[in-house]
Please model this.
Amino acid sequence: MEYTKLGNSGTIVSRICIGTWHLPGSGSFKDGVETVDEQAFSRIFKRAYDRGINFFDTSNIYHGRVEHNEECIKCTGNSEKILGNIIKDYNRESLVIATKVRGPMADFVNGEGLSRKHIIWQIKESLKRLKTDYVDLYQIHWSDNNTPHKETMKTLNHLVDIDLVRYVGSSNVSASDVIDFMNIAEKNNYERFITMQEPYNILNRSIEESKFDVARSMNLGILAYEPLEQGILSGKYLKSNSGRVEYYKDLSKRINETSEKVLKLSEIARKLDVTMAQLAIAWILKRSIETGVSIIPILGITNEKYLDENLDALDVNINNNYMKMINDI
Ligand SMILES: NC(=O)c1ccc[n+]([C@@H]2O[C@H](COP(=O)([O-])OP(=O)(O)OC[C@H]3O[C@@H](n4cnc5c(N)ncnc54)[C@H](OP(=O)(O)O)[C@@H]3O)[C@@H](O)[C@H]2O)c1
Model:
């Protein structure tokens, strides 16, 4: 495994992180929702750990099998609980655990957001679910326009002071808001964000324009989510419709609108003698070198075969000619 710094902190993480938004399905249903095959995820976790992965990402709202929404408030916290049941059997200090706060956790008015009240409630709940006494990286999942930025930053700083959290980061927050949060931290001597968690892959490069400058100027690492555009960049949907799209219908539209590009990318993968998933992950790692921005892909993994295949992307180097061809596509 290769290792790198988490943002500009002194903490070292694997070059690749594993996420827990979607986890392997069990095929059984409870209250109309498919349950997670916890044994299967436990095997994936162990294999990742044995291959040197130490960095895992979750969120208080993740279920592992369904998108969180208002009708499914009871689904919240499930991924954290599953991860907690696994990490209790590992040396906690060998792991770097990231989670998030902001999304709706209960249907009363303070059941969501970035207020002091909500964050202090939720960090305690996350720690219980994760069966740990601290989180390494606590991220604000997205903006909350009802809460002054200073209230959020002061609260996050407090969590670091009382040892519940080691570092803080943002996700899905606009560049101008990230700058505002960082300025508040600077002015008040609060903990600064060290990372921005953002969507980034060959088919979705919008953060290159909106966030790369901020990352460079403020020394922020980028945690790239959906590195395979939710599986589309594995190329599997060119052949069949089996995978996340079977239960996550929102994906169909994106599969249709990207199929021409994916077909062209499959030709490049064939020429390089790598799988499409490896091409997509290696491309992110190469963009990190080309742009001078620290970018760590967060992979979603539903079986051990995908894990092995995708981690082998670390040995793939895409040369400049091929980078240009991908860029043209
Ligand atoms: N901050 C945020 O708002 C935010 C948003 C989204 C995600 N995230 C984070 O980013 C993580 C990754 O997101 P993601 O799961 O969408 O990532 P992704 O890597 O783009 O997609 C992962 C999915 O692709 C499929 N796949 C992976 N490797 C494959 C392979 N070799 N061959 C064929 N199919 C393969 C699997 O799905 P199937 O087997 O089910 O098809 C897998 O679950 C999440 O777990 C979460 O931690 C954060």
User: Anything to note?
Assistant: The chain has one domain: 3-234+277-318. The first strand starts at residue 3 and ends at 5. The chain is about 40% helix and 20% strand. Residues 3-234+277-318 form a domain with the TIM Barrel fold (CATH 3.20.20.100).
